[in-house]
Prior knowledge:
CATH architecture: Alpha-Beta Complex
Low-confidence stretches: 1-12, 200-207, 214-219
Shape: globular
Radius of gyration: 19 Å
CATH topology: Cathepsin B, Chain A
Strand content: 15-25%
Oligomer: single chain
Structural class: alpha+beta
Mean pLDDT: 89
CATH superfamily: Cysteine proteinases
Largest sheet: 9 strands, mixed
Number of strands: 9
Amino acid sequence: MLSVALVVLALMGCAHSHNDPDPMFTDYDALSEEFIDHINSLDTSWKAGQNFPGKKEEDVRHLCGTLDPEPGDSLEADFDDDPPKIDYDTLPASFDARTKWPKCNSSISLIGDQDNCGNCWAFGSSYAISDRYCINKMGLLQLSVQYITSCCSRAYRYNGCSGARIATAYSCWQKYGVPTGGQFGSNYGCQPYTIKDCPLKSESNGVTFPWCTGKSSKPSTSYTPPCSECCDVGYSKKLNDDRHFAAKVYQLRRNNAPSIQAEIYARGPVTLTFSVYQDYLSYKSGVYKYKTGKYVGRHAVKIIGWGVENNMPYWLGTNCWGQHWGNNGFFKFLRGSNHCGIESYGYAGIPKS
């Protein structure tokens, strides 16, 4: 079965997985300074640091909301029948989409923030898709993560903030179309993002959000804002006039890093998924390779390039946990060995003109 196979591949790529004998698992919270210090005491190719001050692991586990594909489900797209015609041996040792398409830098460099919603599947997809409009000279635009989270997930019987597959976003883009929408508070587009992190009680000033439980900063991970088929008041278009569609969507070749590189080099950023373990939550710099911690969940990200650092090949990606996470929202991840399943399941697409 496909989903089982992907999980097995992910575990093979992250040695020890759920049964790592490291006693730090039970002694300390994964976001504690003690656990971070423990990571940095190991022989690693990367450095850990505090990304979620004032929070515990239970407050952020739901951010990894990507679900594995279901075997035989027609929602999953086929592999690309017309991949880029590139000799893999000619691919550069390093590549950054921001350098190749400098006019699209503001789109490619954009860092999202899920806040209190497990919709990495929507962010990782929407941001990669949006880049391709600019790369294809269709202008700078940002597709609505809000609409994908609330409406696309409902169309495929998912609860967006509780998780979905990246195929949900890509299929919805192709079949129904997705309107524009910017980040929280941006007022950009038809449906900007509306989900905000739950404030601590001492910082709330009496303001409440429906997705917050009211108990400190602990989120309600099951709440997904209702789907709206209208644009925000004041936007110049009706939603149906603002829909953007895909000419085609497709899965990326599995366990084939060079083919993924060729796709990025020729067409732009892609969406990849991988298994997250406790140590990744505190990544700050360097090339991430799993070292310690239990399984947290499956995550989706945008990959914009690759390179080599200290003889370690890596993927260059943008996360969707805000600019305070990692290296200002960016990260490097071991490339070429399907580490934590990162090369086992991915998507891309071409916008319809």
